[in-house]
Each structure stands twice: as structure tokens, then as C-alpha cells.
Amino acid sequence: MPAPKGTQNRLVHGLYAMKRSLSQAGYNAIDRRTSVGKALDKWRAELIADLGGDVSTQQSAIIDLASKSKLLLDSIDA
Length: 78
Known about the structure:
Blueprint: H1 9-13, H2 15-25, H3 35-50, H4 57-77
Helix pairs in contact: 2-4, 3-4
């Protein structure tokens, strides 16, 4: 069911704009100079370390998807 006409929800949280930019540019769309980008890079590095350090291509793709999902969920929680 679509949102009612005239709703301003899209202006409040920006989730769809973020999803669109992440789907178009991928994980590279995240600015790593910001505190959010640095925290996400730290989380990603810890995840890779937990997997043994040297990850396969498939694991790397899953880690990228998990990073994007974490970014979206954390932005909603905030």
C-alpha cells in the first residue's frame, strides 16, 4: 500500500535516497572521511578479521552486502 498523497516521510529520514545511492554506486558510495564511514570501515575490518583475514570473493561480496545493510539499519535506528 503506497503512502498517502502529500506525505513528507521521504523528506524526514532519507532512507530511499540512501538506498538508491548505495544500489547505484555500491559500497564505494560511502564517504570514508566521515565518522559513519570510519565506523563502518572499522566494523568491516573486524568482520574480515573474525573470518580469518583472507576472505574469498564470495565472502567479500557478502561482507559488502552486510555493510550496506548495517549502514541502512543504523541510519533508521538513529
